[in-house]
Design goal:
By secondary structure, the chain is an alpha/beta fold. The chain has one domain (6-272): Ribokinase (UDP-N-acetylmuramoyl-L-alanine:D-glutamate ligase, 3-Layer(aba) Sandwich), CATH 3.40.1190.20. It contains 9 helices and 13 strands. It has a 9-stranded mixed β-sheet with strand order 5-4-1-8-9-10-11-12-13. It has a 4-stranded mixed β-sheet with strand order 3-2-6-7. Strand 12 (204-208) and strand 13 form a beta hairpin. Helix 7 packs antiparallel against helix 8.
Length: 288
């Protein structure tokens, strides 16, 4: 029986002034995967507060398993202040949030399965140690989200060295790669199975050994904001890996779904029909 993907990291609220919406890159990815029918095992921590109660209630309403959502009696549920300029988000990320204190999850075996994690939840050593132990022999999908000042190259490279897949945008690649280093050369140096490089309106590329594909970005006709578009791209990429799609198909479908996310406020949709229609279209096109 195929093992459901595990997702480790932050769940938080992106606050546009007083208006706060549920988010956090790993949570967004887990939400989309649930919508697609993969039943992810989400590992995180919230505070014993109203926002934490809301996270748990929203997960249950969406059908997500809450067994690995921990509660912290001291630290608060994560919050980020988001400001938008020309539809692009910038973030003020608070320190010492509940997701910074994730404990080793009970009854969770990632061995041989896919484990997704980002980089923000690695900003403090205890979380990094928990994740390192959890990774074991899992096939790791590392989704870089570099948020100054909450990252450093040394910590990140410890986790890059055992990742099967790395996804990042071109700005992040510029911060991590050596001068003049190509994505293919970077993948070889870090021992990565594949590098998925997103380029915003210019599309995306994948470098997987001798395989290279690129795809253009769909036109977003009615941009609301780009919050969570990268997470939507990651979720479809994970789904495609699970379904054994070829890389060119993964890029095209991931970009299309990410563009759709840009048409609503925040990262998530509660409309189950969107996910059902999307999966139905994929399966129809694949002849399933």
């Amino acid at each position: 029986m195929k093992q459901a993907p595990a997702v480790f990291g932050e769940v938080l609220f992106d606050c546009f002034g007083e208006d706060c919406v549920l988010g956090g890159a790993p949570f967004n990815v887990a939400w989309h995967l649930q919508g697609f029918g993969l039943a992810p095992r989400f590992v995180s921590r919230v505070g014993a507060d109203q926002l934490g109660d809301e996270v748990r209630a929203r997960m249950r309403d969406w059908g997500m398993d809450t067994r690995w959502l921990q509660v912290d009696e001291t630290l608060s549920t994560g919050r980020v202040q988001v400001t938008l300029q020309n539809g692009q988000p910038s973030y003020d990320i608070l320190d010492q949030q509940a997701y910074d204190a994730i404990r080793s999850p009970q009854d969770l075996d990632c061995g041989g399965g896919v484990l997704y994690h980002g980089s923000l939840a690695l900003r403090h050593a205890p979380n990094a140690a928990v994740l390192q132990a959890l990774r074991g022999d899992a096939r790791v999908f590392l989704d870089v989200n570099l948020r100054t000042p909450w990252w450093d190259v040394q910590t990140l490279e410890q986790f890059l060295s055992r990742a099967q897949w790395l996804k990042l945008n071109d700005e992040e690649f510029g911060l991590l790669a050596r001068d003049g280093e190509s994505p293919a050369a970077y993948a070889a140096r870090m021992g990565l199975g594949a590098v998925v490089l997103t380029r915003g309106a210019r599309g995306a590329e994948v470098y997987a050994g001798d395989t290279y594909f690129e795809d253009s970005a769909p036109v977003v006709t009615e941009l609301v904001d780009a919050v969570g578009a990268g997470d939507a791209f990651s979720a479809v990429t994970l789904y495609g890996i699970d379904q054994r799609w070829p890389w060119d198909l993964i890029l095209r479908r991931a970009a299309t779904f990410a563009a759709r996310v840009c048409g609503w406020r925040g990262a998530l949709s509660h409309d189950r029909a969107i996910y059902e229609e999307t999966v139905r279209d994929w399966r129809g096109a694949d002849g399933d």
